[in-house]
Amino acid sequence: MGDQPEVVAQWERHPKFYWEDDGRMVVYRAENMLFRVTVSPFCLHSVLVNDLMELSMKLPSFCDERNYQALLIKAGNGGSPSEPIFLDGVTAKGFETILEWIWHTPSFQTLTLSPDMLIMLLRASRWLIMPDCSRWAIDRLKTLDPPLSAVDRLGFTTTLPIFDVDWLHPAIDELVRMGPEKLSSRDMSALGGRIVGIIGAAHSRILRERARISQSIPDVPPSSSCHPTRHQRVCVPYWTELWWNVVGRRLIDPDDPIPLSEVADLVDRSPSGELRSSCKLLYIQAWRNSTALTVEHRIIDSAILSIVAYLRSLHMDPDQFAIPAS
Fold first, then answer.
1. Are 40 and 128 within one domain?
2. pLDDT tens for residues 159-189?
3. Do 120 and 246 reside in the same domain of the chain?
4. Are 283 and 218 contacting, i.e. CB atoms less than 8 angstroms apart?
5. Pairing of strands 85-86, 25-30
6. Out of 108-122, 171-185, 200-214, which region has the weakest mean confidence (pLDDT)?
7. pLDDT digit string, tens, across residues 224-246
8. Does residue 321 form part of some domain?
9. Rounded to whole angstroms, how far apart are CA atoms 14 and 26?
10. Least packed by Cβ within 10 Å: which of 13, 86, 167, 232?
C-alpha cells in the first residue's frame, strides 16, 4: 500500500468499475482512479486482498486507539472515496484489466490482449498475489503469435518470476547459439551484464569446441569389404578431404554454422566418390557414437542452469518466510 495524498480533487471514479450498489464493497485507488467493487470475488482470487480484509477485522484488538485511527482500513470497512485502499504498485489500466479478468466481462472475453497488456496484467496480478491470474497471463504470453523474442522473455524474467521450462530454456538456447556480438545495446540493457556474460562465455566455449571438432577427423579401421592397404591409400585421404570441405568449413562458418546434429546426415548425403560405402558408414557411426555430438547441448545446459539460478536469486522465495507449524 502507500501514503494517501492530501489532495483528492484529482481522483476520478472509474466509468465501469465504480459501483454504487449496496453490500460489502471495497474502494481502491490505482494512480488517480477510484474503483469500487464487491469484495467477495476479489478475496477469492487475491491472497493479498483476502489477508488484508481479514487483518482489518483483527487489528483493533492489537492497536491502541491512536494507532487504530491511523489505519488505512478500519474494522469491516473497505475504504471510502476519501480514504480508498491505495495500490501503490499497480497502474490504473493494470487494475482495470485485473477486474475485467475477475468478472470475465464480455468485452474481456473478446479482447485480443497485446504483449504489453499481458505483461501489465501479470505485473498487477503478481503485486496483488493472484496466482491463477498470473498463470493465465503467462500461458497466453507463451502462445503469442508472433512469439516474444528471446531477449524479451529473459528480460521480463529479471522482473517477473516466470520459470517455465518452455519459456526460459529455448530463449537461453537461442541466445547462446547466437552469441552476444549480435545483441543490440537495447538487448544488453534488457538482459543485464550478468546474463550477457554467461551467454558470452558459453558461446565462446561452443566456438572453441567447433574449431576443435572441425580439425578432429574421425578415424576408423577399414571395413570388412575394404583391404587395409586400399583403406590407407584411398579411403582415408578421401575421407579427410570430404570431412574438411563438407563438415569442417561449415562447423566454423560465422554466418551459418551447421548444427552438430546434422553432421551425420550431411555426410551421408555427400557423394562417396572413391570412398567405400561400407567405410563411409563406419565413419558416420563413429561420429554418432562420439561425445562431440552432445558437446553443444552440455554447454548450453550449463548456461541454462547458471542463468536460471541467477534469475531465481532476483526474486523472493516465499518458502524462506514460512512459519514452521508449532
1. yes
2. 888 899 999 999 999 999 999 999 999 999 9
3. no
4. yes
5. parallel
6. 108-122
7. 999 999 999 999 999 999 999 98
8. no
9. 13
10. 232
Residues with Cβ within 8 Å of 22's Cβ and at least 6 positions away in sequence, in order, are none
What pLDDT score was predicted for residue 210? 92
Residue 18 CB neighbours (<10 A): 17
- Tell me whether residue 236 is in a domain: yes
Domain membership flag for residue 68: yes
Tell me, what CATH number does 119's domain have? 3.30.710.10
Name the residue with cell 545495446: 185
Domain of 59 in residue numbering reads as 12-147
Alpha helices in 8-130 (DSSP H): 39-45, 47-58, 65-69, 92-103, 106-109, 115-127
Cell numbers representing residue 125 in the block: 496480478
Q: Looking at the 3D structure of the chain, how many domains does it have?
A: 2
The secondary element (H helix, E strand) that includes residue 296 is: helix 295-313
Q: CA 324 from chain center: how many Å?
A: 31
Query: Whose CA is closest to 260, among 223, 237, 242, 287?
Result: 287
Number of H helices, E strands in the chain: 17, 4
